[in-house]
Specification:
single chain, 560 residues, alpha/beta, 2-enoyl-CoA Hydratase, Chain A, domain 1, 3 domains, eight-stranded mixed β-sheet, 20 helices, elongated, disordered N terminus
């Protein structure tokens, strides 16, 4: 998806691409480097007036930690803070704030290490014409270490972003708290955290990890809506390998401990992982395109390019005749949504469930789907967390939720029960019941037991419930139901096997189809699979003016 780091592509508002070399963006020539703190280091370049002082300080700010450190940053395969912002933002749109701020510390040699900006570039700009706030930590300045000045600058634009109702994007590349500042640096994190929380659900917050993110620094990205990491160069961890070895004796590399692959597939911290920095920044633009400016606006609509009445005949044969045979639900989703619009999130974390953003007739929608190709699509602890949080993101940003159900139930097992599958499963129920955005469900095949109820059933305040003809909606599988309902009769029968088969046939005939549920009003309409796209688009057109609220309260108690 992304171009190589040495030749990243930036696309401006008009869609024209330009090639960018690392080190070529926002970088002054060596001719202006002699200026330090407004004083010329050369006798023949005296400061003539106040403008010379300002220009010299600005030039120094553009150099970050100096040319040598910029070259070292490039040698690691990484861009500088200003190069990253130039790739992210529309040409000429960036308005910097706090470019000349410096710390006032004197301990541990810091008196001789003052750099304008103090390790973070912050301000406002535009992405595809939309106003955004952004900050980028500068690893060339004291390793991007977090200081009181950094906190003040980031907090300042967080406040302005919240007041103005615009998204905020953080580009993280820092070795952690500035140890030389002691507890003041730790307290500075708290200023950022509280603003993360106050902004949550009001303005979109996106975090991009483009280097180390260690210690307390990890909590700010974790409090934001989405985390994007770059493979090979980014890492996140609370305690580093050295501390872990000292305390536990375990030996682990930075990549094994907190690299992109770990947070992509095991921890679930990263929503998206890019191959390089250029791709990570393109993912920011793509993701932002599905989101509104704030919670009082609707997501932007694109001009439709895929016919709203398009039907895909392949959907009629997508579900295998053998109900135990898997299929990839992503193939189903791709055939229903606007072509090429599906952006999957958490693709490798809890892969038995699929979530992501897409478009239908140009409008943003959130998709939740069981994945029969992995663990038969059962729900477990991680899948429950993944689904529940995504529903809440869609709800706060006015994105309709469409749920495709093919789930045999919750994963049984002692570990699941002991690890709290009840608590985690309750999160799905809470999220669906709480959400007031339009909600549509489609049972494509199995919807069994508690999973049927949890996954956007009518009782979860779902607006419209569809089912495909092969839908099976029941309390449990036929064989298990027969053992409970007819166990005595089977044991008393002359031929228990034949009796079991007959009871199973009767149960399947009664419940393993969508029509009993439709008779009871639990399913609004049984549709042909090929009709799914136009049916969804018409339903969303109706629900676009939906008004629904919740009882007034400070906040609910989300299951732990």
């Amino acid at each position: 998806m992304g171009a190589p780091l040495g030749a990243a592509t930036h696309r401006n508002r008009e869609g024209r691409g330009r090639r960018v070399r690392p080190g070529s963006i926002g970088r002054p020539s060596r001719a202006i480097w002699p200026y330090r703190d407004g004083v010329s280091l050369s006798d023949d370049q005296g400061v003539k007036n106040d403008l010379d002082v300002l220009r010299a300080k600005r030039a120094q700010a553009l150099e970050g930690g100096g040319l040598d450190r910029i070259e070292a940053q490039h040698a690691r395969g990484k861009l500088t803070a200003r190069e990253r912002l130039a790739l992210l933002l529309d040409d000429g749109s960036f308005q910097e704030m706090g470019a000349l701020a410096t710390h006032d510390e004197t301990e541990f040699g810091l008196a001789d290490q003052r750099y304008p900006g103090d390790g973070v570039v912050a301000g406002f700009g535009k992405i595809n014409g939309r106003r955004v706030a952004a900050f980028a930590q500068d690893f060339t300045v004291l390793g991007g270490s977090f200081s009181r000045v950094q906190s003040n600058k980031i907090s300042r634009i967080q406040d302005l972003a919240l007041e103005s109702g615009v998204p905020i994007i953080g580009l993280n590349d820092s070795g952690g708290a500035r140890i030389q500042e002691g507890v003041a640096s730790l307290a500075a994190y708290g200023e950022v955290f509280v603003r993360n929380v106050l902004s949550s659900g009001v303005i979109p917050q996106l975090s991009v990890i483009l280097g180390p993110c260690a210690g307390g620094a990890v909590y700010s990205p974790a409090l934001t809506d989405f985390v994007i990491m770059a493979r090979g160069t980014s890492s996140m961890f609370l305690t580093g390998p050295d501390v872990i070895e000292a305390v536990t004796g375990e030996q682990v590399s930075i990549e094994q401990l907190g690299g992109a692959e770990v947070h992509e597939a095991r921890s679930g911290v990263a929503h998206l992982v890019a191959e390089d920095e250029a791709e990570a920044l393109e993912l920011v633009k793509l993701l932002l395109g599905f989101l509104p400016q704030n919670n009082n606006e609707d997501p932007p609509q694109l001009t439709p390019y895929d016919p709203a009445d398009r039907m895909d005949e392949a959907l009629n044969g997508l579900i295998p005749a053998d109900e135990g045979e898997p299929y990839d639900v992503r193939d189903l989703l791709a055939r229903v949504v606007d072509r090429g619009s599906f952006l999957e999130l958490h693709a490798d974390y809890a892969p038995n469930a699929v979530i992501g953003l897409a478009r239908l007739d140009g409008y943003s929608v959130g998709l939740v789907a069981s994945q029969p190709a992995v663990m038969a699509g059962v729900l477990d602890i991680n899948a429950s967390d993944k689904i529940a949080r995504f529903i809440r993101i869609c709800d706060v940003y006015n994105i309709p939720v469409i749920t495709f159900v093919d789930c045999p139930g919750f994963l049984p097992g002692v570990d699941q029960e002991h690890d709290g599958v009840i608590r985690h499963g309750a999160k799905i129920i809470y999220a669906y019941c709480e959400a007031t955005v339009p909600k549509i469900s489609i049972v494509t095949r199995r919807a069994m037991g508690g999973a049927y109820v949890a996954l956007s059933s009518r009782q979860m305040r779902t607006d419209i419930a569809f089912a495909w003809p092969r839908a099976q909606i029941a309390v449990m599988g036929a064989e298990a139901a027969v053992r409970i309902l007819h166990g005595r009769q089977v044991r008393a029968a002359a031929d228990p096997g034949a009796a079991t088969a007959e009871y199973v046939r009767q149960y399947r005939e009664a419940f393993f189809n969508p029509y009993r549920a439709a008779d009871l009003g639990q399913i609004d309409e049984v549709i042909e699979p090929r009709e799914t796209r136009p049916r969804l688009i018409r339903a969303l057109e109706l629900l676009r003016t939906k008004v629904q609220g919740n009882p007034p309260k400070k906040h609910g108690l989300f299951p732990a």
